[in-house]
Amino acid sequence: MKKTTLLLTFSLVLVLIGACKDVPKNELPMQPVNLANTYKEAYRPQYHFSPQEKWMNDPNGLVYHQGVYHLFYQYYPDDIVWGPMHWGHAVSKDMVYWEHKPIALFPDEHGYIFSGSAVVDKENSSGFGTMENPPLVAIFTYHLSEGEEAGRNDYQTQGIAYSLDNGDSWAKYGGNPVIPNSGIKDFRDPKVFWNNKINKWTMLLVAGDHLQIWDSDNLKEWEKVSEFGHTQGAHGGVWECPDMFPLKVEGTDEEKWVLLISINPGAPNGGSGTQYFVGDFDGKRFTTDQQKPRWIDWGTDNYAGVTYNNIPNGDRIFIGWMSNWQYARDTPTKKWRSAMTVPRKLSLKKIGDKHELINYPLKSLDTLLQTQLSKQLTIGGMEKDSVSFDHFNQTQVKFKTLARNFMLSFKNTKGEETVIHFDGKNSKVVLDRTASGNKDFQVDFGKTPHYMPVDNLPEGLLEIRILIDWSSVELFVNGGQYVMTDQIFPTENYSLLELQNTSEEETTFREFTISTIKSIW
Ligand code: FRU
């Protein structure tokens, strides 16, 4: 067994975030924060977005406007478990560094503020702004808990709010709800986009086991135009958080539409997951010949992900909630709960006879990387090599290889390990966190390894990219064709990477690099 040693002193760069600005009266200020200790707690992600404190779930209202990427999110400011939902808010200029903003939307007499989207109403179709100062309009679900407790089925309705100062302050529309409920128990998560096929706004809404498509001229009056999915895809749980957008098939002029549907439970490795459909959209109706579900991510911790509206160059940028309803409330963090995935660019590639949805970190993440080791590693048949590093928990590992049978184990001195097994003989990748660290907080969390079939890989060099943060691992195979995102809670840094060649032939890992990833906080 060979051993490559790399010792580094790792100093975290702590960027202190500016003190809270003026907060509108009658709104809660962001929680008082002890800046000196911010973002240094055990398991705190260093380059993923997480709230300063308290509970967060789905990304909401992803929209770009006047040089700013907005990230709203499901937020409960009073506890680290789910509760009456608000929309938390953060902004970024580069999708790398984030600035926290005051809470954007508070519950009101119509209910809690559940998930939804935001648009720039450029033509002021809503009349909330002016042509010179077009409004940002948020479209969300109201959840009336009193209705739920009374055993009714009509407690989820759709509401809107607008902002004339690029998201700093919001006013709810006086005519809410804009879509009442006719008795559908799960009726939520509106995704609205400008539909230039029919010059109207289109809204995607999930209704229990299917998708509904609605349209509108002014964001206030809506009409239902079609339904999709009663018999297609996975139905192991309720459909949630829809999204839909066109993508050019890479290297061609062909355009296909991709529909994202989150589902809970019913994901292939348990709990919550996000399926996708590739098909066509005529402006009113989504059609596809795809019957079986396909998954944007095979790990258990990428849920409720949606994409940005209004990105200037037409890129499709996706952010998911890095957790799973199975254990989201139980993870062993104390001050805050959960983080978002790194922002990922979505694209469509034809590989073999399949349109594959690719998701891969934005290039801007590279600005945080500092390469510490770069070499070529050759490992004999059935042999091992290893790399020591003072910690792997804020690190990217990346290489290219022709090999299809190998294993990577990230280990610490306490015997904890996260293992990635590329099992080409059985056309699958296994991400094993069953011994990764703290896992006893919930019975399903570390119960079984997670598998991902990789049955449509092209021949040739394969890129493997792994991003590890203090409580997550994201694996991208072949530039994002196959992806797994899992939370992990090691109780000590991983300080050893073992690489095992599980084939009889000698194998080479080319351009093998280990890079530290700077903290964004
Ligand atoms: C998805 C979800 C949404 C809902 C929100 C409530 O995680 O269940 O369907 O709007 O969370 O917080």
How much helix, percentage-wise, in residues? under 10%
Calculate the mean pLDDT score and round it: 93
- Look at the helices and sheets and give the structural class: mainly beta
Figure out the total of helices. 1
Q: What is the total tally of β strands? A: 35
What percent strand? over 45%
Low-confidence stretches: 4-34
Q: Write out the distinct hetero groups bound to the structure.
A: beta-D-fructofuranose
Shape: globular
Strands of the widest sheet, in order across it, are 1-25-34-27-28-29-30
For the sheet with most strands, the description reads: 7 strands, mixed
Termini gap? 39 Å
| CA gyration radius, whole angstroms | 23 Å
Question: What's the quick description here?
Answer:
The protein is mainly β and 521 residues long. Helices cover 1% and strands 47% of the residues. Beta-D-fructofuranose (FRU) binds at residues 57-58, 74, 85, 114-115, 141, 188-189, 240-241, 304.
Describe this structure in words.
The chain is an all-beta fold and 521 residues long. Helix content is 1%, strand content 47%. It is built from 1 helix and 35 strands. The longest helix is centred in the first third of the chain and has 5 residues, at 145-149. Residues 4-34 have low confidence and may be disordered. The structure holds beta-D-fructofuranose (FRU). Beta-D-fructofuranose binds at residues 57-58, 74, 85, 114-115, 141, 188-189, 240-241, 304.
SSE layout:
Blueprint: E1 2-5, E2 54-65, E3 68-76, E4 86-92, E5 99-105, E6 112-120, E7 136-143, H1 145-149, E8 156-163, E9 171-172, E10 187-195, E11 200-207, E12 210-216, E13 223-228, E14 238-248, E15 255-264, E16 273-281, E17 286-287, E18 294-295, E19 303-307, E20 316-321, E21 336-337, E22 344-351, E23 354-361, E24 369-379, E25 384-388, E26 395-401, E27 405-411, E28 417-423, E29 428-435, E30 450-453, E31 462-469, E32 472-477, E33 482-487, E34 496-501, E35 507-517
Parallel strand pairs: 1-25, 2-21
Antiparallel strand pairs: 2-3, 3-4, 4-5, 6-7, 7-8, 8-9, 10-11, 11-12, 12-13, 14-15, 15-16, 16-17, 16-18, 19-20, 20-22, 22-23, 24-35, 25-34, 26-31, 26-35, 27-28, 27-34, 28-29, 29-30, 31-32, 32-33
Beta-D-fructofuranose is lined by residues 57-58, 74, 85, 114-115, 141, 188-189, 240-241, 304.
